Amino acid sequence: MNDGEEYRNPNMVGSEEEEDTMNGCLDLTGFQLHDLSEVDIPETLVELDLTTNRLSIIDPRIGLLTCLKKLSFRQNLLKDDGVSPISNWAAISGLEELIFRDNHLKNLPDVSIFKSLLVFDVSYNEIFSLSGLSNASNTIKEFYASKNEITKMVELDHLHELQILELGSNHLRVMECLENMKNLQELWLGRNRIKTVNLCGLKCIKKISLQSNRLTSMTGFQECHALEELYLSHNGIAKMEGLSGLQNLHVLDVSSNKLTSVDDIEKLTMLDDLWLNDNQIATLDGFGMAVAGSRERLTTIYLERNPCARLPNYATTLREVFSNLLQIDSDVLS
C-alpha cells in the first residue's frame, strides 16, 4: 500500500452499503483489495462493483452468482490469464454488463457465453485487436474500447443493436464495418489517424466525434439528418461544407482547424453551441448572416485565438448579433 493510501476493511461496511447488499448490490469501490478472501459474497448478488482495487485474479465464487447482472473490475491489475476463467462460468451467463476498463489486458476477453450482454467495456488496456468480438452476443448495445492499441475496425458487423461505439485513442486509419449498425446513436473515434469520413450509410446517428484525427474535409455527414452533436476539432479542415441539411444539429465543434470563414450553416435553426476558436477567421463582417438560422437560439460561441477576436469591440459585436448569448469564449455573460 502506498503512503497516504486509505485502506477500507470490506467487513466494516456502513449502513448504506449494508442496505445495498441486502438489495442485491455489493459495492467495494476503493477498498484496495488484493483478493476477496475476506469478503462475504452473497449468492443473491445482482450487482458487484470492484472498481479501484488490486485484483489480479477473479475470485471463482463470482462464477456461482446465478443472479448476477452487472460486474465491474474497473481499475484493477487484471491480465489476460487472470480474466480467462470467466469464459467458462456458465452460471453467470445471464450477465448484462461487464466492465474491464483500466486493467492490463492485451487481448479481448472471450465473452461468448454471455448471451444477454448489453454493456461491454475494455477501455484503457493494451489490446491490439478486436479479434474475437465476432463471438460476442449481438445483444450488445454499448461497446467501449478507447485508449488501446487497436488498428482496425473489425468483427463489428453482427452488432445490429449497438447504440454507442467508443474507439477513441487508438490507431485506426479507416472507418469501416458500420453498415449494419442501423441503431447506432453515438460514434466516438477521436484521437485516431482517420483521413476520410465514411459513415457507411448511417442516417440515425445523433453524436459523432472525430476530434484529433487527420481530416482535411467535412464531407461525409450529409445524410446524417438526425445528427445533434458533431465534434471535429484538431484536424486540418479548411472549409465548412456538407452541413446545410443537418437541421437537428445543436452542437458544432470545428475548433483548431484551418478555417478562414464560416460557411454552410446559415440554414441551421437548432444550434446552441458553436466552437470556432483557434482557426484563421479574420473578420466578423457578415457573421450574422452566416449563422442566420440560429441567431436567436445560439447561447455559446467560441472564437478566441482567431484574428477576428483581436478586433476592437469583438465581444460587443457578437452580443449585438446574437441576442441570447450566455457565453463568449470562456466569459460567462451576466
Can I get a quick summary?
Pfam families: LRR_4 (PF12799). By secondary structure, the protein is mainly beta.
Which second-level CATH architecture of the domain at 233-334 applies?
Answer: Alpha-Beta Horseshoe
Structural Rg: 24 Å
Compressed to H and E, one letter per element, the order equals: HEEEHEEEEEEEEEHEHEE
Strand content: 5-15%
Mean pLDDT: 94
Instruction: Look at the structure and name the CATH superfamily of the domain at 233-334.
Output: Ribonuclease Inhibitor
Please give the largest β-sheet: 15 strands, mixed
The count of DSSP E runs of length 2 or more, i.e. the number of strands, is: 15
How far apart the termini lie comes to 48 Å
Q: How would you describe this structure to a colleague?
A:
- The chain is elongated.
- It has a domain at 233-334: Alpha-Beta Horseshoe (Leucine-rich repeat, LRR (right-handed beta-alpha superhelix)).
- 7% of the residues lie in helices and 13% in strands.
- By secondary structure, the protein is mainly β.
- Strand 3, helix 2 and strand 4 form a beta-alpha-beta unit.
- It has a 15-stranded mixed β-sheet.
